[in-house]
Amino acid sequence: MVLKKLKFINFRNHRLRQFDFSQTTIIIGPNTVGKTNILEAIYILSRGKSFRAEHDKDTIREGTEFAQIEADIFSHPRGEKNLHLGGGQTEDRIKLKVIFSLQKGYLSKKFLVNGVARRQYDFTSNFVSVLFTPHDIELITSSPSSRRRYIDSVLYQADKRYRTALSTYEKALKRRNRMLYDIKEGRKQYKSSDFEYFNKILIEQGSMLASKREELVNFVNESIKNIFDFTLFYDKSEMSEARLMKYHFEEQKAGVTLVGPQRDDFKFYFPRTEKPIQEFGSRGEERLTIFQLKVLEVNYLLRATSHTPVLLLDDIFSELDDTNIHKVFDLLPDQQTILTTTHREFLPKKILNKQDVSTIEL
Ligand SMILES: Nc1ncnc2c1ncn2[C@@H]1O[C@H](COP(=O)(O)OP(=O)(O)OP(=O)(O)O)[C@@H](O)[C@H]1O
Ligand SMILES: [Mg+2]
Predict the structure, then answer these.
(1) Whether pTM exceeds 0.85
(2) Nearest CA owner, ligand 1 atom 3
(3) Which domains does the chain have, with CATH numbers?
(4) Model pLDDT, residue 80
(5) Which of 37, 43, 57, 314, when mutated, tests ligand 1's pocket best, judged by the most ligand atoms within 8 Å of its CB?
(6) ∠ CA(263), CA(264), CA(265), 5° rounding?
(7) pLDDT at position 333, please?
(8) Distance of CA 207 from the midpoint of ligand 2 (Å)
(9) Residue 82: pLDDT band with limits 50, 70, 90
(10) End-to-end CA distance of the chain
(11) Quick one: pLDDT band at residue 36, thresholds 50, 70, 90?
């Protein structure tokens, strides 16, 4: 998959911008010029939502009412390693467009593929990307919910059935939690048969979510890790009829569903000592763990979608030492990569002279 052109209007601090990308493109510019915002726009093209805005409407340029992101994508399943941006005969060209507009304070989102309106759910399959930002290191130390969000974001891109299962599960869970909350607050009584419908959905969809999460974790553990070795442990909260029955009384006291994928966690360990990286790892080791995870995410998405994801690397040079920067550059021929940096001097000289490497100065 290759992102060839990107154009946006009123996105974050950018009023109107247009960029062309190579196999490797390095975006160089001082702090606050809008480098991460460009990667954010590209990320939205693959997920339909931002990775850092609490509300997508925050991405609309201040003082304006709509933002638009447009891109030309070349996609040629498998054989994508040899990227000839001039265009070949077999590739598909896809035009993607996302429009965020404010209507009476509410955000309306529009997604178009080759000019045809699509639901966010369908739009997501057209462009695959993997993002690494310095903030991702918090995945190791932050709450289980952020790790679940990450795992979901990978599977969300990888598998349409996962997207459907997740959405059905979350809707049923919300309804079921409302019932439990009503009971806790003494507002309403429900018979156990009232729960049956939701229990059935949660058990069916929950086991689908768990098996895909398990498969991803196995993929990570079985893959060769040439940047940093770690194991990922799936701390699963099984959703089953027996467990729902077991916790039913406690759930009524808590006012919330106590078992299932919404309680899963994923933990990182050193493979040799089996100690948690969260407690025993240095900051550098945490960073390399997450960077390695993202490289495996590229491989996983390639296997799952038959498309090589575009790799987006935000500000990695300030975070990695020379040896690791070279490891990153060794990966570049494998997929299109878009990097950001504040200083040209952070880049190894020989990289800039390579064919297929271009820079964008902001
Ligand atoms: N909705 C918005 N409208 C206008 N400006 C915005 C909006 N959202 C964010 N900005 C501004 O965009 C600017 C650039 O942000 P961005 O994070 O892309 O910078 P950067 O080039 O990555 O900087 P750094 O090198 O510090 O990471 C910030 O000054 C931020 O305040
Ligand atoms: Mg930035």
Answers:
(1) yes
(2) 61
(3) 1-128+309-362 (3.40.50.300), 139-306 (1.20.1050.90)
(4) 53
(5) 37
(6) 120
(7) 83
(8) 38
(9) very low
(10) 25
(11) very high
